[in-house]
Amino acid sequence: MEYDWPAVRESLSRITVISNPGNEPVSLFGEGDGLRCVGIGTDAAVFQTNLAPSYAFKVYAEDKTSKIGTEAEVYGILGESSYFSTCFSATDHYLVLSYEEGPTLFDCLLQGIHVPQQAIADVEEARKYVLEKGLNPRDIHLKNILLQDGRAKIIDVSEYVLPGDDQRWEHLKNAYEEYYHLLDGRPVPSWILEAIRKWYHQRRRYFSSFEEFKKFVLKYMTIKK
């Protein structure tokens, strides 16, 4: 299939991505012909275009472009794997990745879509694979995992070169095992999920442990039913 790459580059050049403080998602300015934003993170936004629909373009914020080369290197080390997207190339402003279908686990909670145990097991296997490749599987959370036919695919590997365990996946898995049965099939309002996300990032200021944080969230959600 032939793609109109000059038109894709021209459309992407019209988009400006600006990072925000406090671990908040990036802001977008501008509009490119045929572009559709399919994901927003704290460093970048991801677009799909009808000019090349099988690809995704991860456009970094202007002050985060130093991460592009690093993420491309991580994809190179990971190689071909069913657990991750494929990176085809990198420019000064964006990565060209395989476009992946499916809702994120965050979307699944919003829409009441069942998240099977198999998806959790897939992430566990993906983490083992990352460790075998000499990388560090960090920053794995609800918005970085897609559900595809009951299986998981991880779509952000940008922090795998950083040291330390941020425990995000361990905490998410623990919450799934203990509490997901209370939510399964029930849509969760976006404002509740966003509130929990913000509390989680500030939990060390207000809670002595993750267990205390979980109890607070459970009590809050029980009150708001």
UniProtKB/TrEMBL annotation:
Query: Keywords for this entry?
Result: Kinase, Serine/threonine-protein kinase, Transferase
Matching entries from Gene3D superfamilies are given as: Phosphorylase Kinase, domain 1, Transferase(Phosphotransferase) domain 1
Originating organism: Virgibacillus xinjiangensis
Q: Does the keyword Kinase apply?
A: yes
Q: What is this protein called?
A: Serine/threonine protein kinase
SUPFAM superfamilies, alphabetically? Protein kinase-like (PK-like)
InterPro entries in alphabetical order: Kinase-like_dom_sf
The GO terms describing molecular function are: protein serine/threonine kinase activity
